Amino acid sequence: MPCQSCGACCAAFRVSFHVSERDDQAGGTVPEALADDETMSTCRIRGTDRSPPRCVALVGRIGESVRCGIYEFRPGPCREFAPHGVFGISNVACNQARARHGLPALPDPVVLR
Predict the structure, then answer these.
(1) How many independent structural domains does the chain possess?
(2) Does 109 map to a domain?
């Protein structure tokens, strides 16, 4: 999986999610200590609103070896973000994040007929 040697998306975008995903809410899993309030109904992962952004849960060096320190507890936007070309999905934002960190673009998805 290219994500474990990349991590660029975790240091390129603001990650906002509904407050119900925080672990202080029934059924929530995202550690409250890593979430900053944004509005009455949304919050964001700490570090992703800075310039340059970097999620506080990102462990390692971008483009070398990384992992998510809260992988099993990550918010919905992180669960939904797929690397470009993997699983046959095209994700321009993935390659944009990679470019911001000087990493080469991932190849386009292979279309099977």
Answers:
(1) 1
(2) no
